[in-house]
């Protein structure tokens, strides 16, 4: 018989896999330490490596009897300069520097910029950021084949460093040829979310959805200021969202990033959409067994704000302490969720229900559960929407997402407060309640004589019909 594992926290953990976490033993350690979803970073690693990781994750899922989500994070359009004759140059503030289409190695006066779309879209006075924002250039002159710039902040610039263009919308798709090849490979292997990098426009989401064809949900990564200008339209098309603070922190002034983070969280929560806070959360644990106090506060603030999940990147993928990093994140979340201010804050920020019977039932389930002291709200869900609606209300009791679909269960692994369980289809409300009672008892949510709330859509098997609420006593 498989073990029945239950997390006792609501906020989920996403852990990135990489060279430091590339064995069945280490992935199992990360899962046991608290990882609910595993991220595959397609900016690194061969297809065969990612396929092996998926196989290892699914073996652990089968052994532990718990659905595990997999996020395939595609690289997106990485913009880079070319190479230099000596491998690197020193740029001085005030000097002029040319970015051109000439493929020859560069020097201290020029370098190749193999992206004509940047040259075409650039405007006089606009800013170019190189090497994650360490160097800043201002465009002085634009020609068909080059940009003349002035160095505002100098430094060392070496081969193939990245280019960010914060001031303009670039006419490039979010999915590159590499991304399409990666998704063609990984989608048939059974992933749950696509991490869509460098989204700028709602059309970027449409393109990914067409390619996914329902095989995976689309998690948009907000890394460009232009995405914030189109936030509502982008979120209206997406399935989930990630606050990707790495590149967002390059293109936005640092003081703007926390404000953008809270704005994205509010917009996602209003829609009942899973929202992930990511990047540099426990960065020092790449090389240290303990985080800084500021990092612990950063994770805690995301939990206080009601993020569905927090994510580890290099900490678990390439760091020296992957297991400790997941365990530390688990400890921080668990401690915050015992704080009365955490609960008070969530209640204060609860969005108003939309004018629909489904939202009314979800909101009522939370109120009834609170009034009678129910041990859990069981959301019977075909598509995941019922569980998402209940999670949006942030109830003070656990949510059991009961579904006949393993795909839905895996996607719910990233959703706040949801303990996802697969079950056989119910043919009547009586049978559905029996299934709910059995799961609540076996997974340790309720004992004989205690009450649960059951939320469902009748008739069964029809997605998006949440219309029934029952109180059931075990």
Describe it.
The chain is of the alpha/beta class and 474 residues long. Helices cover 37% and strands 22% of the residues. The protein has 3 domains: 12-77 and 173-338, Phosphoenolpyruvate-binding domains (TIM Barrel, Alpha-Beta Barrel); 88-164, PK beta-barrel domain-like (M1 Pyruvate Kinase, Domain 3), CATH 2.40.33; 350-473, Pyruvate Kinase, Chain: A, domain 1. It has helices at 24-33, 47-64, 116-121, 177-186, 202-212, 225-229, 231-237, 245-251, 257-271, 293-304, 314-317, 322-336, 340-349, 357-372, 385-392, 406-411, 429-442, and strands spanning 12-17, 37-41, 69-73, 88-91, 96-100, 110-112, 127-130, 135-142, 146-153, 155-158, 163-164, 193-196, 217-222, 240-244, 275-278, 309-312, 377-380, 399-403, 418-422, 451-457, 466-473. A hairpin with an 8-residue loop joins strand 20 and strand 21 (466-473). Helix 5 runs parallel beside helix 7 and helix 10 packs across helix 12. The longest helix is centred in the first third of the chain and has 18 residues, at 47-64. The mean pLDDT is 95.
Main-sheet strand order equals 1-2-3-12-13-14-15-16
Question: Number of folding domains?
Answer: 3
The name CATH uses for the topology of the largest domain is: TIM Barrel
Q: How would you sum up the major sheet? A: 8 strands, parallel, barrel
State Rg. Answer: 24 Å
